[in-house]
Amino acid sequence: MFIHPTAIVSCDLVAGENVYIGPYCTVGRNVVFGDNVVLLSHVIVHDRVSIGSGSIVYPFATIGLAPQDMKYCGEESFVEIGRKVQVREHVTIHSGTKRGIMKTTIGDGCLLMVASHVAHDCVVGEGVIMANNATLGGHVSVGDKAIIGGLAAIHQFVRIGAYAIVAGTAGVADDVIPFGSVIGSRAKIAGLNIIGLKRNGFSRDEIHALRKAFRALFVDSIVGSARDKVVMLSEELRSFKTVSLLCDFVGQDSSRSFCAVRNKMMTEDIGEI
């Protein structure tokens, strides 16, 4: 392990092999680093933080500081960051609260771009990309491989489904379904993230099945909520992975409604392939 002479590191740090702690970094109590973790310079890793192997943290990022929550009372909460995560310059990741799950988690392989923010008690899945200045409010969950565009703001307690994409500058106050594509200052569903589906190797049959389920749940004018309509989908349709993920998400309890569908959706985003 290399520790630069200007760094301040707690004596109880638990670190794997080839850890690098650069100039002017600060590492607090009860911190665990996996192998090959790199803090480039001027990084603050506060108390009770774990960072998985191969992750790199860029200058002026802060991890594990107290949440911006008026109800926080100094409880000893945590931050857990997975493997091969990139935390770019000026990113802020805050610890959990007793009114939440007491920890904030970032999954493996995420990319948090410059000045993005992950608030207290968030659960971020694997392979998530947050572009510059994207912001997650408290208690937000983000599914695997979701993309959140620059300057997008996600309201507290919102769920972002797996493989969804949120356009830059969007304000998201309701749940975003898996594979959904949302746009607008008050975000609405513009269709399905077809490009993301293709990039992640989903087959033509999986995409067609998802498109059919999406139309049935959110587009067709059948009376009833999306949760009511899920039980009307055929077993054959629900056997597809894409549809199964969508149905599971729709069936879960949430304090938020679903993002509404725009009146005029872009045909290419609905999934005409």
From TrEMBL:
The membrane-spanning stretches of this chain are none
The protein's matches in Pfam families, at most eight in alphabetical order, are given as: Acetyltransf_11, Hexapep
Sorted alphabetically, which keywords does the UniProt record give?
Answer: Acyltransferase, Lipid A biosynthesis, Lipid biosynthesis, Lipid metabolism, Transferase
Q: Where is the UDP N-acetylglucosamine O-acyltransferase C-terminal domain?
A: 175-259
Q: Does the keyword Lipid metabolism apply?
A: yes
Q: What is this protein called?
A: Acyl-[acyl-carrier-protein]--UDP-N-acetylglucosamine O-acyltransferase
